[in-house]
Amino acid sequence: MHDMTTQVLSELLSGEARSGQDIAKRLGISRAAVWKHVTTLRTLGYEISSRTGAGYTLTLCPDHPHAVLVHQYYSPVTLGKTIIYLAECGSTNSELRLRAEAGAPAGLVIATDEQHAGRGRRGRTWTAARGTALLFSVLLRPQMPPGELAGLTLVAGVAVAEALKSLGVTATLKWPNDVHIAGKKVCGILAELSGELDYTSYVILGIGVNVWAHPQGGDYISTSLAAEGLRLSRAKVLAAILTSLEVNIGLFTAGQQAICLEKWRQQSTTLGRRVSVRTATATYTGLARDITPEGALVVALDDGLEKVFTTGDVTLRGAGA
Ligand code: BTN
């Protein structure tokens, strides 16, 4: 969206009637230009009534994760100060990677309505029908070596679960970072890192939340916020998650990893359960005992041995799986 169109939208967000003359004066443009931007907004799905004497009134705001709409709900510190909204793209992680390589600052967020090549963990695809999910990526530049960042993806899950709680729904975590409601997956997180053995250039946290609908079929049972009774705009959900990420990533990078991982334990549905862990080479079954200080999963295997997993797909066994 053009910068000036965005500013005209900001002027209308209160929902109060605003005269074209007043908006034109505040923004230093002509009334004809205001009308042109209002027309553009209408083509984007914003319903704006105009009455002689009263002016323009925003009567319906579409559910886009656009910066102006997101910033109504929170004041960004670092994360989401700049939010680039794309109507569609291949993958927000890939879009953000391009900007990261070009030197974009930490905190940049890219959000979209539709991905044509959305990516999931372990090389899988991630699909969501247009406009039904909150799809976004956040750029981080932590001053920590890659070896100390494994827990960061767990912390991202903690942040999403806390955000959902602040919005009124209880979410739980399945190792490493799937977010569930009532045992069904509502959010997936894909963390990608670029760096050297002892130096992190950047981390991209890609987050997909099923807001209005969820994919049917597939390897696991999904749900959406709407199906669980939470009917909220994607902008509001994004604001809550960015607020929570700011706090939790702040803790993690300030040396409070133990506190973050303890929060993960408290919200986990994995620990204390029988699990199967599928790695690239084999599947192991046993009791999920704990996570290490680095966030790896410790499983007491059925053959009596203990194994520590740094990666893998977990299936919960038994009741409530
Ligand atoms: C998973 O497999 O559970 C992780 C899914 C991550 C999906 C999100 S949607 C926004 C971002 N862009 C992508 O291509 N993937 C992530």
Give a description of the structure.
There is one protein chain. The chain has 321 residues and is an alpha+beta fold. It has three domains: 58 residues, Winged helix-like DNA-binding domain superfamily/Winged helix DNA-binding domain (Arc Repressor Mutant, subunit A, Orthogonal Bundle); 201 residues, BirA Bifunctional Protein, domain 2 (2-Layer Sandwich); 47 residues, SH3 type barrels (Roll), CATH 2.30.30. β1 and β2 form a beta hairpin. α1 crosses α3, α2 packs across α3 and α6 packs across α8. The relative contact order is 0.11. Bound molecules: biotin.
Structural class: alpha+beta
Q: Bound small molecules, which ones?
A: biotin
- CATH domain class of the largest domain: Alpha Beta
CATH architectural group of the largest domain = 2-Layer Sandwich
Q: How many beta-strand segments?
A: 14
Which strand order spans the largest sheet, edge to edge or round the barrel? 3-4-5-9-8-7-6
| Estimated share of beta-strand residues | 25-35%
- Report the major sheet: 7 strands, mixed
Helix content: 25-40%
- Overall pLDDT score: 95
CATH superfamily of the largest domain: Bira Bifunctional Protein, Domain 2
Morphology call = elongated
| SSE pattern | HHHEEHEHEEHEEEEHHEEEEE
Query: How many distinct helices?
Result: 8
The CA-CA distance between the termini, in Å, is 44 Å
Tell me the CATH topology of the largest domain. Answer: BirA Bifunctional Protein, domain 2
Low-confidence segments, given as residue ranges, are: none
Cα Rg: 22 Å
Number of domains: 3
